[in-house]
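pasting serine O-acetyltransferase for the record, 270 residues
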Amino acid sequence: MFERMREDIQSVFHRDPAARNTLEVLICYPGLHAVWLHRVAHWLWSADWKLLARVVSHISRWLTGIEIHPGAKIGRRFFIDHGMGIVIGETAKIGNDVTLYHGVTLGGTSWNKGKRHPTLEDGVIVGAGAKILGPFTVGAGAKVGSNAVVTRPVPAGATAVGIPGRIIAKPDDEQEARRKAMAEKIGFDAYGVSEDMPDPVARAIGQLLDHLQAVDGRLEGMCKALTALGSDYCAKDLPVLRAEDFAGVKPESAVAAVDQATPAAPRAND
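structre below
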């Protein structure tokens, strides 16, 4: 028991940079108090002391603002940050090293008996205000964005955002590396194509970068073929991209990026 309490305290330090010392954690972290009181309530529930278990759970809710049904099963190093407004249903199952922020609901969508609440596997992180509703599984290492409403399974390692919750497709590492290389080549700030942004404009820019990469490769192949035939056409420099040409159609940061990535065009009076 004391070993698990020590683990719980250490998990606070690992996941909350605001924690300064053990005494502060013991006194001022309601999420920690809710987890410890739940263990007492769950033991009573398993021992068939149902009413007493519910009383302990109710006292915990009154003290911490966190409602965990005594029937819920919770793993090791479970961390609740802030915690106010969290609700965890009776048949919910939570793995090891899971993190919940305030306002999270692990709820059900049916009044039928049996499994009706979600299962969170190891290492899941659920953002503030998210609602995970139904008897499905959120895979290990998955993330649920703040205020998302998730009603379907989330694959391991994936990220779910929005209402209703949708999975953000993450490009493979090789594709992402090609996009970043092309973005740097044309002087574009690659923050616009981050996989963490479920933005249709960002996706469109990513597709344009893929297309530019393919065109660039095809042109290089044509240049090699022409050089092999004795032509010096490909030795010519590419036209200069001038920042003023993009004024009004690109943000100032992008104009600056183009200006830095390309030399200034020669002027008539130079």
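The first strand starts at residue 67 and ends at 68.
The radius of gyration is 27 Å.
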